[in-house]
Structure formats: C-alpha cells, structure tokens
Write a structure and sequence with these properties.
Layout (H helix, E strand, L loop, with lengths): L1 E5 L2 E5 L8 H19 L11 E6 L5 H12 L3 E6 L11 H9 L5 E6 L4 H6 L6 E6 L5 H15 L6 E5 L6 H12 L3 E5 L15 E3 L3 H4 L4 E4 L15 H8 L3 H4 L7 E3 L12 H4 L6 H20 L1 H8 L3
Parallel strand pairs: 3-4, 3-5, 5-6, 7-8, 7-10, 8-9, 10-11
Antiparallel strand pairs: 1-2
Helix pairs in contact: 1-11, 2-11, 5-6, 5-11, 11-12
Bound molecules: phosphoric acid mono(formamide)ester.
Phosphoric acid mono(formamide)ester binds next to helix 2.
Length: about 325
C-alpha cells in the first residue's frame, strides 16, 4: 500500500501485491476476518458514511465491479459506476482527463480497471484521492489475490506451508502474478503449470516451481487455482487449438481424481467450462469458487475501509 503526500494530505492507495509488506497483507486479512461474521449475518459496517466511491471500469467485469459496489454500500458509502463504453472516452477523452473530471466531483476513492498494465499507478500520480487497482492488463489484480488467500485460509487454516498449483495461462494472467506475490510472502510453496507458450520466460525467477504437465503437480497440491486462457491479451493464438489445450492441460474429471480428498479448487472467473475446467469439477466437491465470490465482498470492504478511512477502521478494530 502506498502513502503519498499530495496537496498537504496523506493518501493511501492499493495498487499492487508486489508492493505489499507481509504485515500489511496480514493486517488486511485480520480486518476481513473481523468483518466476515457481520457480512454473513447481513449486517452493514458503516465506516464510510457520507463518502463516495467511483468504479472506473475501462474493461468488462462481473464479479469485481459488482463486489466493489456491494462492499461500498455495506460500508455506508455511496457508489457511482462509470462504464467506458457509454462515456466520453468514446469521443476521444483520455484516461487522465476522464479521471480528473470525475475527481472534480469530489469522490473519496477511485476503483480502476484498465486493459493497460500500470494505468492505476499512472492515474494515482495524477489525482489526489486514493486509487484501488481492480485489474490492469496482465500486470496485477491485487484484490483478487487477497480474496484468494482469504479463501485458502478460511478453508485450510493457513497459507504458510501449503502447496498451491496455478494451472493455465500464466503468461497473460494478472491473477497469477498477484497471487504469486502474496502466496510466496505468506510462506506458501507455489508451482505453475502451462504449455511452454503460456509460461513467462524464466518462470523460476518468479520464485516458483514449474512443470509442463499437470499430472506432475496435482497429487501434491493443497490448492489448485485454474485460470482461463486470456485470448484478449494475446496478439495471436499461442496454442494450436482450445481442444488440444483441454486435452493436455484442463482440470478434467479424470485429472481431478489425482487430487487429495481435502484439496480445494479455486478459479477467479469467468470460467470457460470445458476448456480449462470440466463443468463437473467446477461444481464438484473440491470447488470453492462461489465462496471466493462471496469473500470478494468482504475483502474489498477491508481494502476500501483501509484506504478511505484508516482512522475509523482502526477505532472499529479496537472495538471502541
Ligand atoms: N475475477 C474477475 O476479475 O472477474 P470479473 O472479470 O468478472 O471481474
């Protein structure tokens, strides 16, 4: 989390998992754990009453945008949704001009999704309100990784010492990148698996193991994170066909039989059923995919409260 000095005020933004210290990750998880029973009971936690959070989405989203909106409302704040496709971006307005004009209406936080890697960081330097990264190109998706870690801890007790296998299009995945940062900082052992064309160059430099065949990794996994092929981020198809991909790399019913009984399967969504994940596996006993979606609301409440009003959050956490 970055703290900036700008126009005499401190602001905290949430831009990437790479920059988070272990203590900051653990603090956000602790906040989310304290918020969880209230959210499960349908209660609001109005730490941000009178504030406004703007969702600036320049790329499509179902889970992330909706859960940020719900999280904002549950914190007592107002929410405003900006969709690039129906905005003046279509008339040629730039990202910075768009953000500055939205900022002129005095919101308290901008949640940004953009197809260009680094755009939330760029934007953060141009506005005085906190910026939260809701996914930037193939760079980072830090709130997704935080909700994945929260879900692993909820299901398996702890991330430390767990074997996490990330299976799919690692090269173009912001989810894989952010998860590798968080999971390794928290002491998990991470392995990635993909066809050679869908692995980044020198995967070992990410601090993870790698294999080209899922069969080599599935038996030892506590967690399998299946990822979609990010065709929208590839200049040209980097596998011979989706059929061949499924044959060798999908988490099929047969491959899922290799898993230990207590292993869990995560997927950030959207799922391409029958491509990277068989429908029976997506809906089967190992799957915690819809729990991830629910936990997204809780974790995004923790992040928004932390960046928008750390003082109110601290008072609430201490029970005063
Ligand atoms: N996981 C995720 O980012 O999903 P959406 O694209 O639907 O927000």
């Amino acid at each position: 989390m970055t703290t900036h000095e700008k126009i005499g005020e401190k602001k905290r933004s949430f831009l990437g998992a790479a920059e988070l210290k272990k203590e900051e990750i653990q603090h956000l998880l602790t906040v989310a754990k304290k918020m969880a029973p209230h959210v499960r009971a349908g209660e609001n936690i109005p730490l941000l009453s009178g504030k406004t959070v703007v969702n600036l989405f320049f790329e499509n989203s179902t889970r992330t945008r909706t859960s940020f909106e719900l999280a904002t409302r549950k914190l007592g704040a107002g929410t405003l949704n900006f969709a690039a496709s129906t905005s003046s971006v279509a008339k040629g307005e730039t990202l910075i001009d768009t953000a500055r004009n939205i900022e002129a209406m005095r919101p308290h936080c901008l949640v940004v999704r953009h197809a260009s890697a680094g755009s939330p960081i760029f934007l953060d330097r141009s506005v005085s309100v906190p910026v939260v990264n809701a996914g930037d190109g193939f760079h980072e998706h830090p709130t997704q990784a935080l909700l994945d870690v929260f879900t692993i801890e909820e299901k398996l007790g702890s991330v430390a010492g767990k074997r996490v296998v990330i299976l799919g299009d690692i090269a173009h995945s912001r989810v894989a990148r952010s998860n590798i940062h968080l999971l390794t900082k928290l002491g998990a052992s991470v392995a990635v698996c993909a066809p050679p064309t869908l692995l980044p160059p020198h995967p070992e430099r990410l601090g993870v193991d790698f294999a080209f065949r899922p069969e080599e990794l599935l038996k030892s996994a506590d967690v399998v994170m299946a990822l979609r092929i990010q065709l929208e981020r590839q200049n040209r198809m980097q596998i011979p066909s989706l059929n061949e991909y499924s044959q060798f790399w999908a988490l099929t019913k047969e491959r899922a039989k290799l898993l230990r009984k207590d292993a869990i399967i995560l997927h950030p969504g959207p799922i391409n059923r029958g491509v990277e994940l068989d429908p029976e596996v997506a809906d089967g006993p190992h799957s915690v995919i819809l729990d991830q979606v629910f936990n997204g609301v809780i974790v995004r409440m923790a992040v928004l409260a932390s960046v928008c009003d750390a003082k109110a959050l601290s008072t609430w956490m201490s029970g005063k």
